[in-house]
Amino acid sequence: MADNEIFDLDSFDFGEFDSLDTGVNVRRQPVQTPDVSNIVTSLKKRAMIVIFIIDISGSMKGARIGAVNDAIRNVLPELKKREKGNTSAEIKVAIMEFSNNAHWRTLMPEPVSTFRYVDIIDVYGGTNYGKAFEKLNEKLSADQFMSSTAGAYTPLIVFMTDGKPSDMGLYRETLDELKQNKWFRYSTRVGQRRLQKSADGIHR
Amino acid sequence: MPTLQNGSQLPLVDGRNIRITGFIDEGGQGEVYRVEMDGEPYALKWYSKITPSEAFYKNILHNIHMGAPADYFLWPLALTDKVGERFGYIMKLRPANYRKYSEFLTGEARFASWDTLFVAALNITDGFMKLHSLGYSYQDLNEGSFFIDPENGDLLICDNDNVAPFGVNLGVKGMPKYMAPEVVTDRTRPNTHSDRYSLAVILFRLFYIDHPLEGRYTVQFPLTDANGARLFGEEPLFVYDPKDKSNRPLPGAHENVIRRWPMFPPDLTAAFTKAFTDGLKNIDSRITELQWLDVLIRARGMLVRLDGREQFVNGYQPETVPDGCRLLRTDEQIIAVAPDTVLYQCQTDCTSTDYHTPSGCVRASVSDPNVYGLGNLSDHTWIVTLPGKDPVRVPPKKFAPLLPGTIISFGNVTGKVF
């Protein structure tokens, strides 16, 4: 390169030119260009919400809840890996437990990059699908879990249960309501269960 | 889990052997290993997760024989024999000073200067110009295709395994949001034209971070396959479409493009507007690499350093030119100059697109910093005419004064100082 040549040029002076005429005739200054090293770069990604719905009824005791805890611990680093370096999706995690009742462990979906999973230990009660569907329906809306300034991907809903619904006959009504929810219709649904004779029609 | 053992040997189709010396990374198609070939370290891309077709294998072999279109390409250098259905190709290792393109979007990597960003954009454009000029297309341009040195804009283009001659596609379609609308909607397989769309997205995000088609309209829709096909294929709408404001960037969601759109010089915004309005669906309106080089060179010419700070100048509005800055208007460009501005061959020779080699350099006079001179770094003499004076010769390493009204003939380009 010509570094040396540029350096050589420094030894010249321009004394022979009229130093009074700078030739600049400024009327207004432009907007200052921010420095490249501190201009804010905040890429807002579309949210991708991963919802785990976990059966914590009494029958899940022991190996079954152990398998759930293990599965979630295994999937989280995979989700983190997929999110890192990707400029399109911010993966967020939400977890619901249900038995006689249902409640969200996460008040809002939490970024997978900082999410910390705490093993489920206490399991008790029945398997009330209806409560789970009702709680899910509440949160599947643009002003709840699906709120995201930069838009969202369709949610991924993972439903993990081992048994028959104890609210057999009642849960279908809440399931029908849930099916009216557009986010639910758009969602990718995965069902995991140990017994085969239940949860018909919940997953594709 | 790496599928190849450290220390194991693999035969190449040309009869040589390589030895696995380490695991580097894995991706969607397979793994990358550090290997030794002829006693030198190289990288091996090993297709452990997919089984590419025989045509794909033969195409890589063909590309190896063709050789890299330019130094930017981490090109396949050698191919392994097949082990069962598995195989891989050898390429150069990526030095540690190169960062992923996507890291510049997430803010994990930053350019040393705005000028460096322009050099990176010019390099990307130059790379694809050279590839396309040979009759080949890349077919899968996406945010994982590039590595850039943030200090100087040096570029590496990786994943060259889908590069194929005109009319050939080996199955790849591309990455969502980087695919051309006609590829999204399956009207065509990737080709040179769709490369040019993807290149425009890559360049846009390098400058503006956010996506050119993601605005207040698109964010309302959950990105299902059907919505994706509509928003990025059937009915794409540029965020700054001059005729349709309905998809403008949304404050809070697309702050980067909101902040940067008015900041860069007008040539750049005009080119992106064309690329993402007329050029969205009409391949004849896509911006060619040569056109991009021209645009980028013009826009870079409006970047000056004043008081140690970089400033974009709108040379089309001389009344906004800041103190201490002059304009040099040539036949085809308006160049903002200030002390230490470097002119390149592409600015003083109309037949050149060389944006690396300096041809001139502005200096303030030692005795009076308000007086500027343009040093001749070219290898031939300039003819300089001061207002009301006779032309004088300015040989290499001598200075032309940058007084208003001065006319400088660089050879096939003439410029006037304002």
Describe this structure in words.
The complex is a heterodimer of chains A (204) and B (418). Chain A is built from five helices and six strands. With 204 residues, chain A is an alpha/beta fold. In chain A, strands 1, 2, 3, 4, 5 and 6 form a six-stranded mixed sheet that branches. In chain A, a hairpin with a 3-residue loop joins strand 2 and strand 3. In chain A, helix 3 (129-139) runs parallel beside helix 4 (171-180). Chain A is elongated, with a radius of gyration of 29 Å. Chain B is built from eleven helices and 23 strands. In chain B, the strands form six sheets. Chain B has a six-stranded antiparallel sheet, with helices on one face. Chain B has a six-stranded antiparallel sheet with strand order 15-14-23-22-19-20, with no helix packed on it. In chain B, strand 22 and strand 23 form a beta hairpin. In chain B, helix 3 packs antiparallel against helix 10 and helix 8 runs antiparallel to helix 10 (289-300). Chain B is globular and about 80 Å long. The mean pLDDT of chain B is 95. The interface between A and B is large, with 51 and 74 residues.
Q: What brief labels describe this structure?
A:
heterodimer, A: 204 residues, 5 helices, 6 strands, disordered N terminus, disordered C terminus, B: 418 residues, Phosphorylase Kinase, domain 1, Transferase(Phosphotransferase), domain 1, Tumour Suppressor Smad4, 6-stranded antiparallel sheet
Question: In a nutshell, what does this entry contain?
Answer:
The complex is a heterodimer of chains A (204) and B (418). Chain A has 204 residues and is α/β, with parallel strands linked by helices. Chain A is 26% helix and 18% strand.
How many H/I helices of chain B?
11
Poorly predicted parts of chain A: 1-26, 195-204
Task: Calculate the terminal CA-CA distance of chain B, rounded to whole Å.
Answer: 64 Å
Global morphology of chain B: globular
